[in-house]
Queue: 3 jobs
Job 1
Amino acid sequence: MTEAHDGGQLPGQISLSGQSPIRPSAELAPVAEPEERDLEAALRPKTLDDFVGQERVRKQLALVLAASKIRGRSADHVLMSGPPGLGKTTLAMIIASEMNAPLRISSGPAIQHAGDLAAILSSLTEGEVLFLDEIHRMSRPAEEMLYMAMEDFRVDIIVGKGAGATAIPLELPPFTLVGATTRAGLLPGPLRDRFGFTGHLEFYSVAELELVLRRSAGMMDLKLTSAGFSEIAGRSRGTPRIANRLLRRVRDWALVHGVETIDARTASSALDMYEVDARGLDRLDRSVLEALVNKFNGGPVGLSTLAIAVGEEPETVETVAEPFLVREGLLGRTPRGRIAMPAAWVHLGLRMPANAVAAAMLPYNDDELDG
Ligand SMILES: Nc1ncnc2c1ncn2[C@@H]1O[C@H](COP(=O)(O)OP(=O)(O)OP(=O)(O)O)[C@@H](O)[C@H]1O
Ligand SMILES: [Mg+2]
């Protein structure tokens, strides 16, 4: 346990204080903490064969790469889209290594001026892979320069200002742009159209996450039973980043408790302590469901009322808790407010009363409740 702790908090302390706000748990955040980067880099698969799951994207990408090798040209530009932690950066690195090409890494937010991009583009070597993370956050002028670079391998460098400004055309060596975005919908059409191939990454199945975990456990020299792997996989919200993080937390627990082979009971004791439940819900997710079910008989109830009931800001409930609850079919959003889906009652170990089903169908005055 020489590595940095996530956020430096001891989860036990949070729950003991009793009145701390219900914060979303760091264990289940889909986005990586800065101190997590090195740990992640160590676990990244290096080849397409090593990359687990995403069968469709993997096959399509393999074809694009194989074809470009046969043609002896740099591969088409590739766009990777999908939620955080599913493997976009990993695939970008794999593309470079499969093409035996050097990799240059930058990101949308780092390119604020067209000049920033011109500097990168003009220093590319033939066949190089340029990875632009968060490509939807690039500035407009840089984006327009990128259009031309992608299509014609050429940029116009503007020298001087105002009436005296001249554009000096600059030829670029053929390169492969790999863009990554969590928000494909925010990409302007002309940019999207210039990618030869777009891979949409999907959430992983539990079986796929088990494979991710087996691979990671092997690299970390950990022993787990099959049931131990599936226990962790089931709580990982379809996201390899979260699976690897939970594996590290379980490893810590096993280390401290002197457990050598991690079975389902060890994994579940460890993750219960971090308040990650059997379905990957954290404390905030659960209190939203519990309020909905216990205080409002399953709803419908307005967002602001629900937020008050759990002592949170409506925005936190809406952006942090709801997307996963909706995806899991535990919570429904209706024009009349939020409702608990039948699976919510099951998950909380309760029976859905008949009138809760009926209540979800009744006209309901949301404003009156909220006021
Ligand atoms: N298919 C996979 N097989 C094995 N490990 C994976 C896979 N996908 C992702 N991982 C692991 O999950 C972690 C996060 O992956 P990655 O950084 O590629 O996600 P990302 O999509 O780029 O996320 P973000 O949107 O936050 O940048 C890495 O440590 C990587 O090793
Ligand atoms: Mg990434």
Job 2
Amino acid sequence: MKGDGFYKSHSLIQRKVIEVIEPLISDAASRVPLPADFQPFWIVDYGCGEGRNSVIPVRTVVQAVRRRRRQQDICVVHNDLPTNNFNGLFKDVYGVDEDSYLGSQTDDGGRTFVLAGASTFYSQVLPKASVQFGYSSSALHWLREFPDGSLKNHLFHWGGAPDESRHLAELSAQDWSIILQQRARELAPGGRMIISMAGSLGENGYDGIDPAKVGQSYSAQKPLDLLNDVILNMVRESAISRTAYELMSIPIYMRTLDQFLAPFDQEALAGAFIVEHAKTDYMDCPFYAQFKQTGDVKAYAAELVATVRAFTEPMVVKGLSVGGGEESRVTRLVSEIYERMRAAVCASPDAYPFNVIQLNAVLCRR
Ligand SMILES: C[S@@+](CC[C@H](N)C(=O)[O-])C[C@H]1O[C@@H](n2cnc3c(N)ncnc32)[C@H](O)[C@@H]1O
């Protein structure tokens, strides 16, 4: 993510997605088995980012658990890569007001302990069978590895040539299985895991959502295709080299519901989970709805582009920095890319709404 609070300031869409799954979180937290007396209840947020979007779902779990056992001690582990802005995360957790899950701490009740788990979620983050409640939003579609040159003509996996697409689908399937195997190790029997991640409708759609009707098969496909088109135009103008472009691929894979469900029957998972809920949800772009009310196209374009920039800029910079690209040149090109995107949205505001396709699921560890 783009650092220094930029992601946090431009992650309203990710927050809206969390609102969709709030009832799933609350319901799962009211049913999950509590640990033995005097043992802590462990919550892990996998791929927490800077923290603001962690606070509300964790608060929902903490409150549900405390309603059931007032004196329950709770350990909250915020997991992300070691490079994550954990300082920003702790500021959010300790600094925020009534939203903070620490607000539910009472003198005669249990205590809540906040910890960071700085490691990849492709490995085990906590000891075996120790976690009662796992949670992850907008993170598990990030792949473990994305070999340079995997995509030649698009930044995103859906634009790959057939052999590239096949290869990335295989990588994604392996990665998804690894994520689930690691969670199977960590979750205690009866533990629950809530998952929300960017998804795909495939060719025919899922859960009554027709890709032809919504005009996209992947989450945020229209603005992400626009980013790709803008950069490709700059390649054609020789402002950016093709090598740099090929190094900018964004290492995410948006799975269909079938791809999501595939590993649960595989031997590697050996029936470890009951899938209590698995559904594809669709959400219209909240910025576009606001633009329709206010008519403020500049504000709409600025927020839309900032949201895309927050999670794509590091890869764009990586591509542009190839061969030790001069910093001022890289900075100028990055600004130009997102400025061109903003101009395109201003010129055709109906063409690029950030409509969300989300895979939402609840797993129960047997
Ligand atoms: C879009 S942010 C989501 C943050 C937050 N969960 C939310 O809903 O807004 C994705 C996060 O996943 C993290 N992430 C990506 N790959 C990861 C990995 N292999 N292990 C742990 N975290 C990872 C990124 O560092 C980033 O903070």
Job 3
Amino acid sequence: MGKIVLWILVGLAAYAAYRFYIISVRRQERSRPPAKDPSLPEVILKCDHCGVMLPQSEAIAGQREPAKHYCSIEHRRAEEADQ
Ligand SMILES: [Zn+2]
């Protein structure tokens, strides 16, 4: 009889551990920010100095004119020094 009670307790402990694990995994998934959809095309911009095309995430915005974009700090410097 004592063994049956022991096995029931072991089963309950395993079930509780399983529930705790599932809840913690769900909580982690919920707290994670949604991943950026890689299927969405990235905006491609043109360097206002040399004309090279580059993704928006790599472009450097102009200091004087934020609407302008450059492929590198050197090109931004060169373009803004000309003005
Ligand atoms: Zn450039």
